[in-house]
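hey so i finally got around to running the thing on that chain from the lab meeting. sorry it took forever, my laptop kept dying and i had to restart like 3 times. anyway pasting the input first so we r on the same page abt which one it is
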Amino acid sequence: MRNLPIVISGPSGCGKSTLVDLLLLKDKTMCESVSCTTRAPREGEVDGREYYFITEREFKNRIAENDFLEYDEHFGNFYGTPRSFVERLLKEKSVILEIDVVGGLNAKRLMPETLLIMIVPPSEIELEKRLEGRGSEDKEKLAERLRRAKYELEQKPLYDYVIVNDDLDRALKELREVIDFERNKEK
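ok and heres what got predicted. didnt touch it at all, straight out
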C-alpha cells in the first residue's frame, strides 16, 4: 500500500471534518496535515497540533522558498500547508489535507500524485439547512458561504472523486473504499 497526499475539500456544512475525524479514528496508516498560520494561537491551541504558529516574516520566507503546497490570506493572517512537512509525513503514512478547492488544485499541481476527493451535500437546499442549523452566522455571512459553496461545487469535474454525504455511514464507507483503492493501485 502506497502513501498518498489526499486532499479532502467541500463547502462548509458538507460534513468533511466529521468524515476526516472518523476516518482517522479507524485508520492509523493515515494522518492529517498541520498548516502554518501567522495568527496568534487561541486559548487551548497548541503549536504543532492545531497549527504551526509562525511569524509573517517566516511565512513569507517559506513562500519564497516554495515550501507551501498551498497558501492564502484570510482576515489579515496567512495560512498554508508546508510541503516539507507533508513530504516528511508521507514517508510513514498517507496525509490528509482538509483544504479548499483552490488549495487542493494547487497541491495537485505541485504534487501530481495527490488524490482529490470532494465531499458534497445531497442538495443545495440541504446545505443551506445545515448552515442555518449551526446558528453561528448572520444572514450576510450565510449568503457569502452559500456563494462560496456554489463556486466550490462548480469545481467538481476537476476532482478525482465526488462523495455525496447524505448518510454519514455510507459516505464514510465510500471514502474509505476510494482511498484504499487508490493506495493499492500500482504507480
